[in-house]
Design goal:
Elements: H1 2-14, E1 27-32, H2 38-49, E2 53-57, H3 70-78, E3 84-89, H4 94-99, E4 105-111, H5 117-131, E5 138-142, H6 149-160, E6 164-168, E7 184-186, H7 189-193, E8 198-201, H8 217-224, H9 228-231, E9 239-241, H10 254-257, H11 265-284
Parallel strand pairs: 1-2, 1-3, 3-4, 5-6, 5-8, 6-7, 8-9
Helix pairs in contact: 1-5, 1-11, 2-11, 5-6, 5-11
The chain binds phosphoric acid mono(formamide)ester.
Length: 294
């Protein structure tokens, strides 16, 4: 349902008049405790294109800096009668905790290494629009799976949608017993990419690493960086994805990332706005007096 709704919003976003007042009178607050370009901006655009009032809270300029706790921050915002709170937090589980303290809808914009559900939705939409389906496709998720909330959310969603998921990476960057999540595991990238339909690369998340997980950037790129040599093992029409931000020359070769025929990285960003519009629509719902529709 969300993907079908998002398909409609793709068309709206490509038209001259991108605004519909479906969520007029509704208030959306973006509360990001971690940096973001794509997620924060696309939620802001999504809310504004649906006619909602959107506030981006500057955590660095908020009372969090004076020691106010996450719960007190949530309860303070709750008193202002929000409709949707979009939260990103560096700690896994923080968004769920916060959601239990407020009356409004809460959307997880990424919590630690745990989940990034709207990223998985936009990835699914991107794949479905290019391939026409998700069921039966083989998707290789490659790189730093251990620290990746994008990988976890994608594993869940792709499995539900009937895709086959492979995880490819060095032992140090794959969670132990990850096979229990219904995936196949490969430590040799060439074997892992054989005949796949989609190659989803992940960023090396230096900011979440405590200690050394890879011998060197050079060696990592040699074995696990996506270049045309390794891509040749995938299906001839296999597509390349990356949630961004990318470390060019670390997990992905620049020419591969910018390949207009194979890379869907820019489409992923476009689909992000449409998917987030669908999520806001589904959660906030139109007011009876709102004009316009999706
Ligand atoms: N993919 C993603 O979450 O990007 P941002 O960190 O820029 O939001």
């Amino acid at each position: 349902m969300l993907l079908d709704m998002a398909d409609g919003y793709v068309e709206q976003n490509r038209s001259l008049d991108k605004r519909k007042n479906l969520l007029r009178g509704r208030t959306v607050v973006n509360l990001f405790f971690e940096n973001s370009t794509r997620t924060r901006t696309s939620f802001e655009l999504a809310g504004k294109r649906l006619g909602a009032d959107v506030i981006n809270m500057q955590v660095s300029a908020s009372s969090v800096q004076k020691g106010e706790t996450l719960i007190d921050t949530a309860m303070t915002l709750n008193a202002m009668h929000l409709d949707v709170l979009v939260v990103r937090h560096p700690d896994s589980g923080a968004v769920k905790l916060l959601s239990e303290k407020v009356n409004c809808a809460v959307i997880n914009g990424g919590d630690g290494s745990h989940e990034h559900p709207t990223q998985a939705l936009l990835d699914a939409l991107t794949i479905r629009r290019r391939k026409g389906r998700l069921s039966g496709l083989t998707v290789a998720i490659c790189g730093d799976v251990l620290h990746s909330r994008v990988a976890r959310s994608n594993i869940h969603l792709l499995n539900v949608m009937g895709a086959r998921v492979r995880l490819v990476g060095p032992r140090t960057l794959l969670p132990s017993q990850v096979e229990r999540m219904g995936v196949e595991v490969f430590h040799d990238m060439r074997a892992g990419l054989e005949d796949v339909d989609v190659v989803m690369m992940l960023r090396i998340q230096n900011e979440r690493m405590r200690g050394n997980f890879i011998p060197s950037i050079r060696e990592y790129f040699h074995f696990f960086g996506l270049d045309y040599d390794k891509l040749a093992l995938a299906k001839p029409d296999a597509v390349i994805m990356h949630p961004g931000p990318m470390n060019r020359g670390v997990e992905i070769d620049s020419d591969v990332a910018d390949d207009v025929e194979r890379s869907l990285i820019r489409e992923q960003v476009e689909m992000g706005v449409a998917v987030r519009m669908a999520c806001l629509h589904a959660l906030a719902g139109p007011l009876p007096n709102a004009d316009g529709g999706a």
